[in-house]
Amino acid sequence: MRVVIVGGGKVGAQVARNMLDRSYDVKLVEKSKAKSARLANQLEMEVICGDGTEIPVLESVGTLNADCFIAVTGSDQDNLVASQLAKREFHAKRVIIRANDPRNLDALRTLGSGIAVSSTEIITNLIEQEADTAQMHLLATLNRGKAAICAMVLPEDTALDGTLLKDITLPEGSLIVSVLREGKMMIPNGLTVLHAGDEIVAVCEGKSQQSLMKILAQHVQ
Predict the structure, then answer these.
(1) 157 phi/psi in degrees, rounded to 5
(2) What is the CA radius of gyration of the chain?
(3) Could you read off the pLDDT of 181-211 as tens digits, one per residue?
(4) How far is Cα of residue 190 from the mean position of the Cα atoms in its chain?
(5) Collapsed DSSP state (helix, strand, coil) of residue 139
(6) Of 59, 191, 196, 199, whose Cβ has the fewest other Cβ atoms within 10 Å?
(7) Has this prediction a pTM greater than 0.90?
(8) CATH number belonging to domain 2-131
(9) Which of 90, 98, 27 lies closest to 36 in space, CA to CA?
(10) Are 67 and 8 in contact (CB under 8 A)?
(11) What three-state secondary structure class fits 147?
């Protein structure tokens, strides 16, 4: 999996470290020459010194068709520009934008070309989602990124078709809050029967998102 990260601050460095630990192909871009050299030593990887809002720099690090592009500089404006270029010019498959100021989240979600978040943990979870085949999407973050509201459509060959909600053991820290079926939303209870094609919306805390995704993504054997 090819991951391009723009911004070598605390968030960018931590995400890069997380991805390297998972043996992903990671490229990190940082404007500061001194910080680039320091990060290269700390992470034991090549760090490209350059401006991630410039097309030649993005081209040089392999942004074209990258599996995941992450803009986490200290400037929300730069993150917005970098994400727009990654999506529109280089067709990155998934784009994630970090909002330094939570008040800018709505603007980044409206103007940006990717998913806007404000937490390192949520960013890591989003990248892991792309590594899996399940299609769970982040709708919003809660409690400063410690929790998230996520949605997923049950696949046609779901193993949960016809299953009562009360018969599904949900991960600790997760709660299914709504089910959308044929354009109609319902607030579920234990007797709600799930069907293929249902869009499930859940609140997930901490690492429960990944566990819930695996449960909902079960296919008929």
Answers:
(1) -100, 30
(2) 19
(3) 988 889 999 999 999 999 999 998 877 887 8
(4) 30
(5) strand
(6) 191
(7) no
(8) 3.40.50.720
(9) 27
(10) no
(11) strand
